[in-house]
Design a protein that fits this description.
CATH class: Alpha Beta
Distance between the termini: 6 Å
Helix content: 40-55%
Structural class: alpha/beta
Radius of gyration: 19 Å
CATH topology: TIM Barrel
Oligomer: single chain
Strand content: 5-15%
Shape: globular
Largest sheet: 8 strands, parallel
């Protein structure tokens, strides 16, 4: 078998805050005198369900108190992703949950961009942030975060995302996404994770979604599957995440094989690698070991990620060449 850590990859669905090293969260909590997330024990997170996961997520954000903290986690993110064979990452950053708390809408985002630039210099990985407007927060916070994303588009911000609990319908955020997309940002909402087909349709129609974060529940609607297949809308699938947050009961029950059999445009991604104890390589290993995907199918998934990314053409050509070179390697026993 070929070494999947050496397979060149992109990571299109990954949250910066969910990638913070547990050791960094602990150190910053002590430094700033804030309480550790209750679910963080013995250096590992644990969750009862999706709501508990969100609670632990929010608790971790309190450890970030200034530009140095944001710069640090962005730099460490680059290092950790590079060890996974990731060459390009498009990274969600939950600015509404920082801007209001710290009274600063530009400093955290600029610090993240600086950390990514330092990480590119030292580890050869290109990371681009997009700002997540979080469902359920005060709409003014989401609006101000969107405005900051637009302000810093030319500094490297690539888009606007929509995370959080899907009980808050995407249509509520249509105006924010309209402004952002008209200003040249990409639309990258979560949909079809905890919400069903209606959430996906809302993301496509109201938010002009270019990719779907998760999207796994599209299989509940045959007409929607046909539409997604026809339009080749990329799905940012994160199998281990779905099991950790109890969206799916077990890894054996994950719909990844059915998504592929339906001819959908599937990419594999990590989501929250520190919180879920699994980077993007683990997603590929799972696809091989649990679902029996061949190296050729795994290379196709890596290529699908490259093509669904917003990397420039030169980087895409380079990545596609290197993925095919990986496939040409002689597998070991």
């Amino acid at each position: 078998m070929r070494d999947l850590s050496r397979l060149p990859k992109v990571d299109l669905h990954v949250h910066l805050e969910g990638s913070m090293r547990a050791s960094t969260v602990r150190e910053l909590a002590v430094r700033h005198g804030v309480e550790l997330p209750e679910g963080l024990r013995d250096g590992r997170y644990g969750f009862r369900d999706f709501r508990h996961f969100i609670d632990q997520w929010v608790a971790g954000l309190r450890c970030l108190q200034g530009p140095a903290d944001f710069r640090r986690i962005a730099y460490e993110f680059c290092e950790d992703e590079a060890t996974e064979g990731v060459r390009h990452a498009e990274v969600s950053f939950s600015l509404p949950e920082h801007g209001g708390r710290l009274g600063d809408w530009d400093g955290p985002l600029l610090a993240v961009l600086e950390g990514f630039a330092e990480g590119e210099r030292d580890f050869g990985i290109l990371c681009r942030p997009y700002v997540d407007v979080v469902r359920g927060l005060d709409m003014d916070l989401s609006r101000r975060a969107m405005e900051a994303a637009v302000r810093h588009r030319d500094d490297g911000v690539i888009g606007l995302g929509l995370g959080g609990d899907e009980e808050h319908r995407p249509e509520r955020y249509a105006e924010l996404f309209s402004v952002a997309v008209d200003a040249g940002l990409h639309s990258l909402p979560h949909a079809g994770e905890t919400g069903g087909p209606a959430s996906i349709r809302g993301a496509l129609d109201a938010l002009r979604a270019e990719r779907l974060g998760h999207g796994v529940r599209c299989l509940e609607d045959d007409d929607l599957v046909a539409e997604l297949r026809g339009r080749r809308v990329p799905l940012e699938v994160c199998p281990i995440s779905n099991v950790m947050t109890r969206v799916v009961r077990s890894i054996e029950e994950h719909p990844l094989p059915r998504l592929l059999d339906a001819g959908l445009n599937v990419t594999l991604n990590s989501d929250d690698p520190s919180m879920f104890h699994a980077g993007v390589t683990s997603q590929y290993e799972l696809a091989r070991e649990v679902f029996g995907l061949s190296d050729e199918r795994l290379a196709d998934l890596a290529l699908a990620g490259v093509r669904a990314s917003f990397a420039d053409d030169a980087l895409k050509v380079s990545l596609e060449r290197d993925i095919r070179a990986w496939l040409d390697e002689v597998p070991t026993a």
